[in-house]
Structure formats: C-alpha cells, structure tokens
Amino acid sequence: MPKLVLVRHGQSIWNLQNRFTGWIDVPLTEKGKEEAYKAGELLKDIRFDVAYTSMLTRAQETLRIILETVGLLIPVIKDEALNERHYGALQGLNKDRAREKWGKEIVHLWRRSYDIPPPEGESLKDTAERTIPFLERAIMGDIKDGRDVLVVAHGNSLRSIVMYLEKLGPDEIIKVEIPTGTPIVYELDENENIISKEIRHLEE
Q1: Residue 34: active-site member
Q2: 113 in a domain, yes or no?
Q3: If you average pLDDT over every residue of the chain, what do you get?
Q4: Is residue 49 part of a domain?
Q5: Catalytic annotation on 41?
Q6: In a domain, 204, yes or no
Q7: Does the UniProt entry include the keyword Isomerase (predicted)?
Q8: What is the pLDDT of residue 174?
Q9: Inside any domain, residue 75
Q10: Residues of the binding site for substrate
C-alpha cells in the first residue's frame, strides 16, 4: 500500500521570535535544520517516488535536507497551494504585540476558529479551499498510482490535509497541532482510506 508522509518544516526564525509568518519567506534556524535532518533519519526506511512542497523557502529547505539525509534524488513539485495560511495584517507581528493591539480574545479567535480570518488574511477554511483541490488533483493521483509521496509544508496547509484524510470536522481540526519536523506517516488503500497512521517523534 502506498504511503503519504506529511512533515511540517523545521523551526523558522520567526517561529523562534514568536511572530506570525504566513507567506513571508523566512529561513530556518539552526534548530530547524537539525529538525529536518532528524526527520530524514526517521524516514530512511521509505523509498519515496515524488515529493511536494510549497513556494516558501523554509519548507523547500526542510525538504532538501530530508532528501539529502535519506539519500534520494526524486521529482519535487512546488506549488503555492501548499503555502502556509496567509495571516494578512498579522504577518510579521509578534504574537504578544498583536494581542496588545487587537485584544487577546479576538486574536485567539483569528488563530483558532475555522472560518474567521484575520484582517486581509485567510481562515483555515480559506486555506483548505486551495489546499484540498490540489491534494485531490495532484497528490492523490500519485497515491492512486501506487507511489510513496512526501509532502513538506506548513502547519495550516498540513492541517487541511489531515482534516481531509481523517475526515475531521471543523471543531475537531482546530484542536489538531502539527509540531515542526515530526513526520506523520499514513498508509492508504486505493480508495484513500487510512490503513495505518504513525507519528514518528524526534528524539532529544
């Protein structure tokens, strides 16, 4: 059965600084590069046929390190459908400063509700509306052809994919956290049903 593996990029500079990142292109920290290397170590048993990533450097660099660690040279497809949720007016702001500016409750609502976007930005629902069609059209096509697929993307674009695969509702997906650099390995059947799910944790 084909495998679909999801990995959130390693820690970025703005993750470290507690800032809303969204579509701003920021690099990995040294810890983020180490997380990517460890994710690669955890995936050496899978011979991926194809990889997908976003148009953002932190995801592409994580993927590059993983493939280098695994020792694979495979096709890589980049698409902004897999980009992080666009945080609009929040992008670049420290999360604590955003709470001071708009209030703790409203910022929490923007971050954790399913369908309420921040000013000029996307909700998780908006993110899913671009991620899921790409998943169905491209990624699941490879799965149906029996290929093992690696997707390295972002917290919210990956949450959209998890929502689709695990058939979760809006109230369930908003509680799902996806840690940086932690592979989620799904084994799927020909009808996209999950045969098994394994979260491979990094060792400290």
Answers
A1: no
A2: yes
A3: 95
A4: yes
A5: no
A6: no
A7: yes
A8: 86
A9: yes
A10: 8-15, 21-22, 58, 84-87, 95, 111-112, 155-156
Number of domains, the chain: 1
pLDDT tens by residue, 4-29:
999 999 999 999 999 999 999 999 99
Q: What is the CATH number of the domain that holds 143?
A: 3.40.50.1240
Binding residues: 8-15, 21-22, 58, 84-87, 95, 111-112, 155-156
Active-site residue, from 9, 35, 61, 122: 9
- Parent domain of 24: 3-199
- SS (HEC) of the chain: CCEEEEEECCCEHHHHCCECCCCCCCCECHHHHHHHHHHHHHCCCCCCCEEEECCCHHHHHHHHHHHHHHCCCCCEEECHHHCCCCCHHHCCCEHHHHHHHHCHHHHHHHHHCCCCCCCCCCCHHHHHHHHHHHHHHHHHHHHHCCCCEEEEECHHHHHHHHHHHCCCCHHHHCCCCCCECCCEEEEECCCCCEEEEEECCCCC
Q: What is the pTM of this model?
A: 0.95
